[in-house]
Every structure is written in C-alpha cells, then in structure tokens.
Amino acid sequence: MADLWSVYSKPVPANGRELWTLFLQCSCTTVVIGGLFYNWMFASLEYSWHLSIAMAVSFSLLLLLTLFLVHPARCVFSMIMPTLGTKQGRKLLLSTCIMIVVVNITPNIISNIKTILQIIKCICKNSSESLLNSTALLETASWQFGDAIQETVHSINIYRPMNGHFQFSLLNNSALIYQQMHLAGEKIGKDFLAVEILVKDSVRVGNRLVAGFSVLYLCFESTWYLKNYLTNLRFDNFYITKKLEHLAVEKKAAHLLVGSSKNLIRPTGLKLSRGEVMLCLVQAMLLTVALMLMLVVVAMDHFAFRVADTVVRRAAQFSVVPVTLSIKYNAKIGILPFLLRLFPYKELPLQDFEKSYNRSLIFSSAHCGISPPTPPNPSVMLVVGLLFCILYATVFLETYAHRLCRKIAGSFFESWEEKRTHYLYKKLSRKHKE
C-alpha cells in the first residue's frame, strides 16, 4: 500500500512500470466513482437513466484524464474524500435525507388524508341517498293517507275534492346531487394531486441545486486548502509530525515540543483543541434542528395514519338509524250552530286512519371505494436514522478529516512539507528564547 501510494502521489512516474500502475489506479478509481455518480444521479437526484449514464460516462472519462495527467488534481481529488466528512459532506447527506423523506413519507401522508376524505365523501353520499330515498316513504304515506281522505269524503257524499294526494318531486333531483358530489370529490382529488406534484418537484429541484452546489464547493474547498497549503507557511501548521520530531532530535531541542504541547497537536492523536470542541458543539446543535424538523414530518405521517385508521374503523361501526313516520287521522262531523235549536248537538265519527312507516338511514356502505390507510414504512425510518447517525459522527470526525487532508497534501508535496516543518521549528525556537 505504501508503494502504491508513493506511485500515486509522485509528480512524475519514474519508469514505465510506475506509469502503468498509476494508470490502473486512476482507472479503478474512475470506474468506482463513475458507478457511484450514476447511482447518485439516478436514485437520489431522480434524473432519467439515459441522462445519468451519459453524465456518468462523460464524468468518468474526464476524471480519468485529469487524474492521470495532472498531479495537483490528484491531490485535490484525494482530499475530497475526507472532505466528505466535513460540513459539505453533511449537506450532501442531509439533502439525501430530505429527498428520502419527501419521496417516501409525503405521499404516504397525502394518501392517508385522501382516505379520510373518501370516508367523508362516502358518508355524505350514503346519508344523502338515504334521505332522498326517504321521500319515497313520504310519497307512500301521502298516497295512502289521501286514499283514506277520499274514502271518508265518499262515505258522506257531500263534498268531493278533486284529489287528496300530495305530489313529491325531490327524487327528481337526486342525480344532480350525486353529480355535484362526484365533481366535488374529483376536484379535491385533483387539488391534492397538484399539491403532491408541486411538493415533489420543488424538493427535487431544490435537492439538485443543493447537491450541485455542495459538490462544487467540495472541489473548491479542497482546492482552497491546497492553495493555502502551498502559499502560506503558517496555514494549518501546528502539528507535531514525525518530521518535526526528527528535526528537533537532530537539533537536540526535543524540549521545544514538550514545552509547547499545549499549543501543538499530534495529527494522529484524539486530542481536540478548545476551538475544535466548540465548533463541533455548534454544528451538532444545527444538525439537531434539522433532525427536529425531520421528526415533525415523521410524526405527521404517524398522526395521519392513526387518524385515517380510526376513521375507517369507526365508519365501519356506524349503526343504521331507524326513522319512523306515524300518521294518526281522526275525522268527525259536527252539526252547524243554527241547527242546534232543532237537533241536540253531537259529533258523528267517521273512518279513522292510523299507520306507521319505517325506514333506515345508512351512513356507510361496503360498496364505497375506500383505499385502506397506509402505515408508515419502517425501512424509511431506519435509513433516515442511520443517515443521521452518520451525520452526527461526521460532526466529531470533521477535525480528523482536516488533519487527514493535511497529511495527504504533505505526501503529495514532500519538499514543501520540509519547508513548513523548518518554519514551525524556527517559530518554536524563537518563542522559547523569548
């Protein structure tokens, strides 16, 4: 591995064997990166498969030529890998989490809301249908009651009305009511579909912009680090490296490293400075805010499912409401007042009418097309939880990623690392004398 890294980090290969070794290393690297790039574009950013393939192939060929021919580009590319463990890498992972939540959880919430609306639509349709059908009960009762009135009038043979029946026309409007309810349901469905498409498109575009910006910033950050490393001897130069230890031993000044242990850090150690600890805590707090927002969306998913499940079960338990129409009719004939002098007053009873009509109001039906509520997907929760564990890990690994970037830059530019070591040694010597 040391030999392979030596060939990879050399500015110019020494012979043909190292040249072919470098080409194979660059080829293997570009194949792996190209595959990951295709999967990232197709699965995470949701580009079409043919565009993803074309972009992945073009990117792989360009990357192969760049890595094989340009030595500083190999250094920048190598530093991008640990830079993924820094703030920019967290942005990429966070955008992936957002895309997973939007693609998998948001449609589930909308689906459960649609289930609740379907139940409300079903209840409205069945109840209105039952109410409209109950007019048939009124019509039957009116005709029988009208027949009783006709028979009563015929029995006295004094006055005969034209017709004793009532006319009902409510049933003629049932088709219009059903049509209006159907149109209202379709409009609500179209509105929800439009909202779902708008949310998906907005998040997809936002995720692509964030992902593209993050990748460009990764390259910029690595290039910026290398530029400062090669132009500023003071930049990120406070580590006790092996070269510094050897130099101090040669100069017989090992006490300089012991006395300055509070200001210097070993790049391979786990010690964090106070500033590095505070930065980690701030980043962890910001990440916690993003986690809380994610948990709100997850809680909405569970809440929508519980409400939809409860509404479906309660709607199935709706009892049939019985409706009873009772008609009691009693007719009598009374003698007019001016005849009271001739005859004693009395009332002559006629035919009585008493009957009850029963009907049932139905609020739910098995014929309603109600989609069952969709429970939250536990695999999505697991993936999001694992990604956030990685995000929290990168918060505390960011410092070590910066140290690894410095080590990579030092291995690519060994002569400049020697200059930086001598500069740091002279600085420590000057401070010790003062």
Automatic annotation (TrEMBL):
Top-level division of the source organism's lineage: Eukaryota
One Pfam entry name: DC_STAMP
Coiled-coil residues: none
Topology relative to the membrane: Multi-pass membrane protein
One GO cellular component term: membrane
Keywords: Membrane, Transmembrane, Transmembrane helix
Annotated Dendritic cell-specific transmembrane protein-like domain residues: 235-425
Membrane spanning stretches: 20-41, 53-72, 92-111, 277-300, 379-397
Protein name stated in the entry: OCSTP protein
Source organism: Sula dactylatra (Masked booby)
Gene that specifies this protein: Ocstamp
